[in-house]
């Protein structure tokens, strides 16, 4: 996922971008005395090696050796993959596909990947995934070019110590009751800022993007129509999310921080904001920023508007290039790595929330809690959020479109542009990308 993998890449800083030259290449995967080497071309931290799944698979299949190449950031990774897709060669046996790029693969490179929908067990495969996750990697004519790894259902994380200082409730059920809608969330923000006892300098929310990014995905339409064409100005998701986020920015509810920047990272430790939109992978990011000292500070409430629709941010797939030397063996590996049993193991080991609805319904997931996040029932919270996600089309430009709106909202928050001016700026930036 573009953002979540970027976040996890911090944990893989030792992986040099020099790997870029080889990460997408298949390398030497020829047979040697009956042995087959399967190469994995990935980005960020997928977590399979760390969770011991490669070792487990090789124990089950002694004839298989798995070799993994990783590029820290998904952007350079995908640029290299695009070059190899254009050449029709040089890809790994298995390639990771991120949410920001999967639509481009679906629209322009589907023939380069194995169609999992054409497999004999396709119906059984599809039935294990959330319908929206399967659809995001499927073409309009029914080809499915990858199987889902993790998902990013969203909730709202909050600093319960800051809420207590401001005279707000801290129990998750009571906090969720404060904001059944986004208008209620903004009203709570006004109450927070008006409190004479809140921590000096503390904003209600980190960034306008913590409103825009989740709210836009709750619309009937986000950035694209059913054919994958950008429809920003006609999108109910965009119009609603922009109105809410620009209000939050204009009313001073935000800490005026650009997400994933150095100042934003530092702000976790100094109490600069009380709430943040919280996809499941954000828990690991918060933990990495605060360390042991942050245990018990945060808790998790329901995302505003979830009674109407849930929201997701991030997620990835594994695809098998059809030009590979060991296509059948690679397909078997991908099906095993993304099977419900393995997705449960990934959640338990690393907190990667399953894209498999079957895995999400397992006791190990539904009963999971987070001691770090004040005992929050994370399996239940994110499972309920995932169940509420709408099936909406995505386009090859979704990442660039969201970045344009995020950057424009930053200028509203710092007062350099009015909401109308910033919206026009975003549209101009989007036009340059989409044509």
TrEMBL record:
- Keywords assigned by UniProt, alphabetized: Signal
> Which Pfam family is one of this chain's hits?
SBP_bac_8
Q: Which InterPro entries match?
A: Bact_solute-bd_prot1, SBP
Keyword flag Signal: yes
**Domain of life assignment:** Bacteria
Kindly indicate where the leader peptide sits in this chain.
1-25
Keyword presence, Signal: yes
Task: Please report the name of this protein according to its UniProt entry.
Answer: Cellobiose-binding protein
């Amino acid at each position: 996922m573009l953002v979540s993998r970027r976040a996890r890449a911090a944990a893989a800083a030792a992986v040099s971008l020099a790997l870029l030259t080889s990460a997408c290449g298949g390398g030497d995967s020829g047979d040697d005395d009956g042995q087959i080497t399967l190469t994995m071309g990935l980005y960020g931290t997928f977590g399979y090696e760390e969770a011991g799944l490669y070792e487990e698979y090789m124990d089950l299949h002694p004839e298989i050796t798995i070799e993994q190449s990783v590029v820290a950031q998904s952007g350079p990774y995908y640029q290299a993959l695009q070059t190899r897709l254009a050449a029709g060669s040089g890809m790994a046996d298995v390639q990771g596909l991120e949410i920001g790029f999967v639509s481009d693969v679906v629209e322009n490179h589907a023939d380069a990947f194995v169609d999992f929908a054409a497999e004999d067990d396709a119906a059984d495969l599809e039935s294990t995934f959330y319908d929206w996750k399967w659809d995001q990697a499927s073409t309009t004519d029914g080809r499915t070019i990858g199987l889902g790894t993790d998902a990013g259902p969203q909730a709202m994380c909050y600093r319960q110590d800051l809420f207590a200082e401001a005279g707000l409730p801290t129990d998750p059920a009571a906090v969720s009751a404060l904001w059944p809608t986004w208008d209620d969330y903004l009203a709570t923000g006004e109450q927070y800022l008006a409190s004479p006892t809140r921590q000096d300098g503390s904003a209600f929310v980190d960034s306008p993007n913590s409103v825009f990014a989740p709210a836009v995905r709750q619309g009937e339409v986000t950035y694209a129509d059913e054919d994958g064409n950008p429809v920003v100005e006609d999108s109910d998701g965009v119009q609603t999310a922009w109105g809410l986020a620009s209000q939050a920015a204009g009313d001073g509810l935000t800490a005026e921080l650009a997400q994933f920047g150095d100042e934003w990272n530092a702000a976790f430790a100094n109490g600069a904001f009380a709430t943040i939109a919280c996809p499941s992978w954000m828990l690991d990011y918060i933990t990495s920023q605060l360390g042991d000292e942050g245990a018990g500070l945060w808790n998790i409430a329901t995302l505003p508007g979830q009674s109407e629709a849930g929201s997701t941010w991030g997620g990835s797939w594994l695809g098998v290039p059809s030009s590979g030397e060991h296509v059948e063996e690679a397909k078997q590996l991908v099906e095993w790595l993304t099977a419900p049993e393995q997705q449960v193991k990934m959640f338990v080991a690393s907190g990667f929330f399953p894209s498999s609805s079957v895995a999400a319904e397992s006791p190990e997931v539904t009963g999971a809690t987070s001691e770090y996040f004040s005992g929050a029932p994370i399996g239940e919270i994110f499972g309920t959020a995932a169940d509420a996600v709408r099936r909406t089309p995505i386009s090859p430009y979704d990442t660039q479109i969201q970045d344009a709106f995020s950057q424009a909202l930053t200028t509203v928050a710092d007062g350099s542009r009015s909401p109308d001016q910033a919206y026009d700026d975003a549209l101009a930036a989007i036009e340059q990308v989409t044509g």
